Amino acid sequence: MSDKYDVIVIGSGPAGYVGAIRCAQLGLKTACIEKWKDKDGKGINGGTCLNTGCIPSKALLDSSQKFHYAEEGFATHGISTGKLAIDVPAMIKRKEAVVKQMSGGVAGLFQSNKVKSLYGTGKLLAGKKVEFTDNEGKTTTLEAENVILASGSVPVNIGVAPVDNDVIVDSSGALEFQEVPKRLGVIGAGVIGLELGSVWKRVGAEVVLLEAMDNFLSIMDQQIAKEAQKIFTKQGLDIRLSCRVTGTEVKGRGKKKEVEVTYTDKDGNEQKEVFDKLIVCVGRKPYTEGLLAEDSGVNLDERGYIYVNDLCSTDAPGVWAVGDVVRGPMLAHKGSEEGVMVAERIAGQKPLVNYDIIPNVIYTHPEVASVGKTEEQLKAEGEDYEVGTFPFMAVGRAVASDEAEGMVKIIADAKTDRVLGAHIVGPSASDLVQQVAIAMEFGSSAEDIGMTVFGHPTFSEAVKEAALAVGGHAIHMPNRKKRK
């Protein structure tokens, strides 16, 4: 094994593996270090996203939605199924097969692009040297012209609900249940809490989400958030806002174990609830444990993120950092784009990441998605804007598909008509919002989208109609009077 590389990447999640592949494509001799192991103790690529995050959670979301629709939606179409049952171990086994396929795909991409895969841990030393300890404990010092830190993030733990990986679990543990809990508690009604709560609600659990914030999905456009809350409540998710967990106590033994959760409600009163399982998902934090030698020259900010500039360059020359371990939204696609930008910068190109246009998606059913500014942000900034909304209940394809809940909202500058944001709750929201993201990347106006020919019948027509509604020109719904 050669100890000298053009680029060494530490971490093979979406930021790291994409960065490594792009470096290799640009002719740079590249190695990627990954400490993750599978259940057999074998090194595996993909990081949190592929192994315990994006991919496995979507596999379970898809399985649970199919079961739920077969149980409650088929009859509308005249399809009789009889009594249904969910085989949870089989559902989990399918999830694991999906993870294995996708992580194996990264290994294949490394091989075809000639990225050297190193399984073990990496520690950045001074002078762009990396201390690599393989999974057998052997330590080697590697040298590189450039080092990319992509060590990712881990779930935040809270003292009042210590994870025991039995009754109290984090987001990773919630993907491993072997049976449906009768009563499931979730601390945190954010993206992860809603997705995991949805999975187990669909297959029969009673789900209570305890959220400390006063507003539901406070980071999202609040008109869309309120619509989403209404839909999720109708689905049976018990979402309790302004609730702060103050303690937990695990009781019983074996299969009779349960956890009593104490919390204060919105009125300040102490409440107690008993659950068979409790998921703690109150956010994630950057992971830098064992990553940096004291003299590495890389600094952390006050929140524990690696400090970087707009180009993802750290305070140490030739050392870069990307993904969840640096500022910005903890999103796989954001990290991937940073990985590409850094690789191309190392190769002498001059790309930038447009941080103003990064889509954000919650993969519930229906999905919730956004890109750009919310109405609340624009109000706070004193911007003059116009809004267009359009409901899916007026979209033929949505009605025909039993997917008529939700709406599309597009916000545009009042003077220039340039699109400033798009917010959607509804069918295929993750894909529809991307249409607007592309338009925004090219500086499109709402009129540009409204003048574009959209196929009929498609869910996408809601995007066109919302864009038309910005100027009061929607065709398939009465137009509201424009704001004064």
Summarize the structure in words.
Keywords: Cytoplasm, Disulfide bond, FAD, Flavoprotein, NAD, Nucleotide-binding, Oxidoreductase, Redox-active center. It is found in: Cytoplasm. Its cofactor is FAD. The chain is α/β, with parallel strands linked by helices and 484 residues long. The protein folds into three domains: 4-155 and 285-346, FAD/NAD(P)-binding domain, CATH 3.50.50.60; 168-282, 3-Layer(bba) Sandwich (FAD/NAD(P)-binding domain); 360-470, FAD/NAD-linked reductase, C-terminal dimerisation domain (Enolase-like, domain 1). Helices cover 30% and strands 24% of the residues. Strand 4 (129-134) and strand 5 (139-149) form a beta hairpin. Helix 3 runs parallel beside helix 5 (191-202). The termini are far apart. The model has no long low-confidence stretch (mean pLDDT 97).
Summarize the structure.
By secondary structure, this protein is of the alpha/beta class. It is 30% helix and 24% strand.
Kindly estimate the percentage of residues that lie in beta strands according to DSSP: 15-25%
Strand order of the largest sheet: 1-2-3-4-5
The second-level CATH architecture of the largest domain is: 3-Layer(bba) Sandwich
Which regions have little confidence, pLDDT < 50, spanning 5+ residues? none
Task: Determine the structural class based on helices, strands and strand pairing.
Answer: alpha/beta
CATH class of the largest domain: Alpha Beta
The CATH homologous superfamily name of the largest domain equals: FAD/NAD(P)-binding domain
| Spatial shape | globular
How many E strands?
21
Rg, rounded, reads 24 Å
Q: Approximately how much helix is present in the residues? A: 25-40%
